[in-house]
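Technical note accompanying the year-one report. For the benefit of new consortium partners, we illustrate the data format agreed upon in the data management plan: each record pairs a sequence with a structure-token string. No post-processing was applied to the example shown here.
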Amino acid sequence: MSASLEQLLRDARIDLVLSRIEKDPSVIQDVIKNLDNDIRSIRFNAIYVLGELGEQCGDNAVTELIKFCTDPDWSIRRETVRTLGKIGKIAEKAISKLSILIDDKEFTIRSAAVVALGKIGTATPESINSLKKTLKDSNEEVRAEAAKSLGLLGADAYEAIPDLIISMKDPNWEVRTASAQAISSIGKNTDKAIPTLINSLNDNDWRVRFRAVNALAEIGEKVIPSLIDSLYHKNKVVRIGAIEVLGELKIASPQILEQLSIKLKDKSKQVRRKAADSLRNIGKEAIPILVKELETANNKMKTILISAIAGIGEGAIEAIPNLIQLYGNKNKKVRVEVIRAFGEIGKDSNDAILALEKSLEDPKSIVRREAALSLGKIGPMASQAVPSLLKRLEDKKPDVRWRSSEALGNIQLNKPEVIAALKSLIHDKCDYVCESADFAIDNLTSQD
């Protein structure tokens, strides 16, 4: 004879109870009846079984479980709360009771209550206020779970963002992380969060500003008007944050491009740099703006603009004629940045390769070194520069010899004179030059 349901619950044979329910769903009602059993272990395990069933246990089970939220046995209360969380959405009617339990003396019950509110997922004034309150709980685990649950409530919990921003400064890193993730989860689906997030760009804590930027970017196009206004905030930190979001959006609208071009002339160097970075993120459509600004920018700004153009990659090939005009700049930092850019965007430009080859004769060793490095990045397309690179293998600066030998290996022109020249470096006085030459020879001869 098989054991009775009551016996299985008393012996905690949860697997067998669930197996019976799988064969006969009507057994669920018998489990619910055992919630009132005089034997504690039976009551406890009946509650646990209902949690394992989740939504399958039905609305009637929720009604009965709510009664145990105030049970004098703390372990029964905790298991009830956990079960209501597992049941999820259909346990909405339990929100009021769960909200009361955030003040329970036992912290594991408080933690289970905030977890359950998140899993139920219904944002009511009662649940939001309870979770906001719990962000200040004395126990760090409870605070972290409260933040996570607010994130699960989504856009409807937008009013909790100011509280989560405060929690971003919590001494516990798990609380800070959970709060940051919650802000993003709430903000990305509602424009109601925009004003608060914009204000957060002015926060003294970089972590808060970082999360605000991410959340605003996730909201999308709706934030653009507010961001444009923030570009003229008196605090440069706010301007930088707004510019960063515009870059993250990667929207090449005429309005955004125009506003970012204006910020390239901002009185703050950090703002100007961030504007260039954001234009780089937007991509090819920003090339005309970056190129135009090169005409009037000072040398420091020129290096920033050139770097942004290089960051766009091969799509910025149209800027090469403008960069070649800067090739003869007296400032070596500008020349170096131009040469680095050619390595990123000049693969299909004979003019860029010619400029790099000429740069191998530059009086500044850093320019010669970077020219060799860029030719190596271009690879086989730069084969015309091989004779000039061979000359640089005798350069007095080891860094130039190093990058030149490396470039010859990457260009992969396997000729006797190239191999012979590289072999002459095998015993160079600088170990890294020897290693580079040896590697280049292997790279060339492995093609055979």
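Partners are asked to follow this layout when depositing records. The chain has 28 helices and no strands.
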